Amino acid sequence: MPKLWDSTVEQHRHTVHAAILDATATLIAEHGLAVNMSQIAAHVGIGRATLYKYFPDVQTIVAAWHERQVTAHLDQLTSVAAEDREPGERLRTLLATYLRLSSTGAHAEHDGRDHGPISQVAIALHRASHMPAAHQRLHELVTSVVADAVDAGAARTDVPPAELAAFCLHALAAAHSSSSADSRERLLEVTWSGLMPPR
To answer: What is the mean pLDDT of each run of 10 residues along the chain (199 residues)?
Structure first.
């Protein structure tokens, strides 16, 4: 098979795959969890037999959607961690970004909409098989940025960076139950205070 043709086929499969994930998220947000494969196929504009070539059932599609969302958020946090900022400012920006992402429907589709049921599914999926590696990547990322802040004198030195990272992630997880921007900002301030060197 010519390379150009092979590339085109692969791109088509990628496009259809993404469309299936987007369609499923939209349908569940609009109609709840009683969504079937026929509805998804019709929404994407493909036959049901074609849909089954990509996914065996709705649960697998939702799991793939969630993994895509988590990966996208981790990539965004990685970009923030790589920014050329003063270490303390970079750490605060990273924590603020994590807080914002955590509060958008518990990793619902980040497009400004409330995805309701799909968000509830996503919360349950945080126990899925792809999550341990995601948690590990997140913890290592935050630990690295905390360590830079510690070295620069912008964070306390009496607690190991890995423990400080775990403290931040657990503290900011409270944002999942908060719908108020003010309360989230207060939560960020409390977390930030806990990172400051003791007087």
So the answer is: 64 92 90 88 95 93 89 95 95 94 56 48 62 92 97 96 96 76 89 90
Distance set, CA 32 to CA 23, 25, 121 (Å): 13, 10, 10
Count CB neighbours of 134 within 10 A: 17
What CATH number has the domain bearing residue 138? 1.10.357.10
Query: Does 78 share its domain with 50?
Result: no
- Helix/strand/coil (H, E, C) string of 10-42? HHHHHHHHHHHHHHHHHHHHHHCCCCCHHHHHH
Residues 48 and 70 in one domain: no
- The answer to whether residues 117 and 32 belong to one domain is no
Identify the burial level of 14 via C-beta atoms within 10 angstroms of its C-beta, where 0-12 means exposed, 13-18 middle and 19 or more buried. exposed
